[in-house]
């Protein structure tokens, strides 16, 4: 795409331990006149005014539209509004997030650039031996999950087990999902919600909460919705699904939905979204390059220890997500090649 990308970090050459490959880093003193920063939504209010004052262009990457109000202490609603109003582009991870952005900032709708993430189809794929296992992630809406699991222990057909996915690597998560037949989703206020997608791509019937962001892919028969908080309905739907599988339910009906997910959350689709973003910032770069010489920005973005921690070490959900270095809270600085 003709872009050199860096992670803005206070430690030159820092290696992210959770990243699949090395990411080049850059310090604020090395920012050039045509550089463009991508801020995570939860740091936009704290940094946007400083960037604007220094003449540095930026965009905001919103992975969760329900986090728009989140900000550091010392920032206010006006700082949030300033951040979005002065952003070159606003990257949105899902249709639900885009809708929330338009709700809050209808006058900025044209700046919203829809992007998607790539799901690792080598790991998250159907195939292999399926077992009478139901998986779930207990960290999402934990009390709901505990109540459903408690009831299922008394109601599931003989031989069925419920297994929690927690504290596992990406490879271990994928292995567990390839073995299970049903995945219970307890998503709450999600920008997109990757686990239900990954579970469905591994050939699971996904039952539960779409969390908002999951609306765009929550389509039968791969997905079955449950109203948030309806524990009884949740338990009955999971039990009925297990009984139907024991009765010989044909899982081939899941194939069209799996194919649709593979296409939607593919590398090609992610690249298309990033290309739209690159086109948007390319229009903004020449004027700024002429107005500001290299090294003229005195930002001091990483002055406070707490901010250095945020920019350098906060761990995003799991590697493999779109612009994961930007999403992790690190400042992402795309640079046009000379």
From TrEMBL:
SUPFAM superfamilies linked to this entry: UDP-Glycosyltransferase/glycogen phosphorylase
The organism's place on the tree of life at top rank: Bacteria
Name of the protein this chain belongs to: Glycosyl transferase family 1 domain-containing protein
Biological source species: Caballeronia glathei
